[in-house]
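The protein record passed on below.

***
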Amino acid sequence: MAEAQIAPSRLTVTPTVRLRILAFLVILAAWEALGASGLFYAGALPSWGTILPTLLALLLSPSFWSALLVTGLEIGLALCIGGILGVLVGMTLGSSNRIGVGLQRYVHYVASTPKVIYLPVIFLLSGIGPGSKVAIGAFACSFPLALGTAAAMRHIPPVLVRVGHSFRLTRWQMARLIHLPAMLAPIVSALRIALGVAFAACLVAEMRVSNRGLGSLIIQNYEHSRFPDVYALLIVVIGLAVAGSTLLDRLARRLSRHDAPR
């Protein structure tokens, strides 16, 4: 009886979901209207009846999966390298008031600059192969993690630090047993931002100097005026970015609830 009463509530559409569906339908209708209005060049805004079959054909293409694998490996390596560097720098900035006050302002300055301007330097140092895409992605995504970790470091409850000192933990033990567990949720939240930054940096680098990866595939289709293919690839990229961000957001929320006082 209880299950029969609970089951209908699971199918209830909340006002938020209704608003999202309505906004999505409005966007689709506006797209179709603008494409048929003649305000843009022919083919610049193809109809969804053209984009969706192109997307299906793209998902069945071996070249697409090869490009996705290349981009995925570049982003994964960039996120691992940049994440480790960012967390280490953030812990250094957050653990020392003197270093934090002296250097964090410069980290903020560099973090606010467009990372694309560093591409020529990256290409000079590491060439134009896959290593350069990993390098620019790691460099770009390290800043959100460094700043997020530094801020989280300063908000660790002092009682935890005193407990660690009372047990005479070494610096490595303090970091492993006290600091990192207390900062896990903020670090995952910063990782969500870093993922988007690494994604953007690697794709831009592939568009600029590369013949492999999703970025290269997008620019090749654009140069040959295959606009439905371009939009199909953009849908894939947006979908992957949204999926990764959603998973990290849910993980951060779960960690926050787990760490919240009961």
The mean pLDDT is 84.
